[in-house]
């Protein structure tokens, strides 16, 4: 028997709330943790760091993203790899769905 996790439409797993941020762990094992986020328009995760490397994949919407001292745009299809301890923040310009993959 093969064990796997399958989502036909990841955007449906974290429909962005009108006001706020929703997060849901969709997968976790001893090597990775995958969390899908739904950001309401204008919502922001303030600057922070993660102790482990991480990847962001934007599924839906548009956001501005600070990575260290750089400001970048993100949209559906944007992928980012961040090394451990890189300061970063995310601000949703429109409703956003984003997948965060933390490497353990």
Task: Describe the model.
- A hairpin with a 3-residue loop joins strand 1 and strand 2.
- This protein is 0% helix and 55% strand.
- The protein has a single domain (23-103), classed as Jelly Rolls, CATH 2.60.120.
- With 104 residues, the chain is mainly beta.
- It has a five-stranded antiparallel sheet with strand order 1-2-9-4-7, with no helix packed on it. The protein has a four-stranded antiparallel sheet with strand order 3-8-5-6, with no helix packed on it.
- It has no helices and nine strands.
- It has strands at 21-28, 32-39, 44-48, 54-60, 62-67, 70-75, 79-82, 88-92, 96-103.
β content, as a range? over 45%
Main structural class: mainly beta
Main pleated sheet? 5 strands, antiparallel
Number of E-state strands: 9
Spatial gap, N to C terminus: 26 Å
Task: Provide the CATH top-level class.
Answer: Mainly Beta
How many helices in DSSP terms? 0
CATH architecture identity: Sandwich
Low-pLDDT runs: none
Order of helices and strands: EEEEEEEEE
CATH superfamily: Jelly Rolls
Using only C-alpha atoms, the radius of gyration works out to 13 Å
Rough outline: globular
Indicate the mean pLDDT: 96
Strand order of the largest sheet: 1-2-9-4-7
Number of separate domains: 1
Instruction: Predict the CATH topology.
Output: Jelly Rolls
Percent helix, as a range, is: under 10%
